[in-house]
Amino acid sequence: xxxxxxxxxxxxxxxxxxxxxxxxxxxxxxxxxxxxxxxxxxxxxxxxxxxxxxxxxxxxxxxxxxxxxxxxxxxxxxxxxxxxxxxxxxxxxxxxxxxxxxxxxxxxxxxxxxxxxxxxxxxxxxxxxxxxxxxxxxxxxxxxxxxxxxxxxxxxxxxxxxxxxxxxxxxxxxxxxxxxxxxxxxxxxxxxxx
Amino acid sequence: xxxxxxxxxxxxxxxxxxxxxxxxxxxxxxxxxxxxxxxxxxxxxxxxxxxxxxxxxxxxxxxxxxxxxxxxxxxxxxxxxxxxxxxxxxxxxxxxxxxxxxxxxxxxxxxxxxxxxxxxxxxxxxxxxxxxxxxxxxxxxxxxxxxxxxxxxxxxxxxxxxxxxxxxxxxxxxxxxxxxxxxxxxxxxxxxxxxxxxxxxxxxxxxxxxxxxxxxxxxxxxxxxxxxxxxxxxxxxxxxxxxxxxxxxxxxxxxxxxxxxxxxxxxxxxxxxxxxxxxxxxxxxxxxxxxxxxxxxxxxxxxxxxxxxxxxxxxxxxxxxxxxxxxxxxxxxxxxxxxxxxxxxxxxxxxxxxxxxxxxxxxxxxxxxxxxxx
Lengths: 194, 374
What we know:
The structure holds 2 protein chains of 2 kinds.
Chain A: H1 2-23, H2 27-47, H3 51-75, H4 87-110, H5 131-140, H6 144-165, H7 177-182, H8 185-188
Helix pairs in contact in A: 1-2, 2-3
Chain B: H1 3-13, H2 16-55, H3 71-81, H4 92-108, E1 117-118, E2 128-129, H5 138-146, H6 149-159, H7 163-194, H8 199-205, H9 219-232, H10 244-247, H11 257-282, H12 298-319, H13 325-351, H14 356-360
Helix pairs in contact in B: 2-11, 2-12, 3-11, 4-6, 4-11, 6-7, 7-8, 7-9, 7-13, 9-11, 9-13, 11-12
């Protein structure tokens, strides 16, 4: 009963904060609403007994991704007056995407795959199942190929973004740090007998 | 990990009286950690001023009370009495919320730190771990919570509406993100050896004297973790975000009075946490270095190791000049990151050496056969 209460608390807060992201006029506040949304989603994972996923969600999305979001927004000149312009123009596309996602969700929920008897909750096995260990075992044995492919895709994206944005400026003067570190007293200092 | 369920069950399962008692016990547990942490933070500032004073052949603060011991209280009183000034064009809500968001994660992280083991003078049959919550993903929790501290700094920098504060916040962010990676990888090495994400399991894995502590097989990682910790908490010589020479005071330049003090408290709490984590991960936690010294309680050992590391942090501050910013970034990305990656490979190979010939043949089903956590 109280579990359901916590579920509705986290779920309701997640929806409210997601609404806050799009309604809020200040971009900085939007980012903070999104952070709150992630926290509530992680609360839902905790309720399911998936503490590894819950912590990883906070660690990666709140601790790293949103920091970069905020970093970019801080550097932008945010124009508060022009915030609502042209939202009707994007409504058809956005509405289509929302509709497709909604249909997919309903289809998945009613398909009978995600039922409680097929996906028993970890926490109901009692203390002996450690889901960090279980996720590790599955990820590095059965799902090894997919895991590695995902890792390679991320690496390629990483290298690609660096290659696209790296600009070697010819006119700038860079220090060669290994040269600086290598410098010894004898190179710079000369004793002259007077 | 069933502490969430314990919590919920605790609210439901007990009657009103037992429920109240349970909540009181939790409150006492939290106070028993939070109050000493706050006091330690206050007296770390005192220790820092005295130690740096001695290193620089000065006296340090020795006027208020015997040996200047009341100096932190006097400082606190002074800061409480001061007026908090909010800049006219600052974002008032975020400006006031930022110090709170900086201090909260710093204190929250102490919830999972195991301070030792006790059987309460034979009251319990088996020793219990002294932590508010003994999570089995404790180390991930610490990393997740301490990565939240950046929001306080970012918001302080942005909400102040000042270019120095903004640049300070940007520096702090890039520095913390860079060094978090090196810290994460050095922790991975510990996890490979310990086979668990739980802090108490990691300490148990280092049982049996100084030769079993992880700073011996993981010596480079020990150094990387500690230095990254200094960079992560914006300690000197990595205190670029608050470098007074070029940024006045960095991200908290517009803050005054107690709001300013809260940032300092958060920084010192984070420093104590890094020292505690280094002793837990690499220096055997609450285990004594030699068996014959085990009559001294484990908590004393843990706090001794932590104090030693805090002293090293202070020593750093008195010894090294501040880094240049591009060199801070270079150290994080070009030195520590490859170093940690290489050491993960070394430790991984060393740990699984017996199984290598089996693990290399993917056809056989022996992958995952070797389970150090069992």
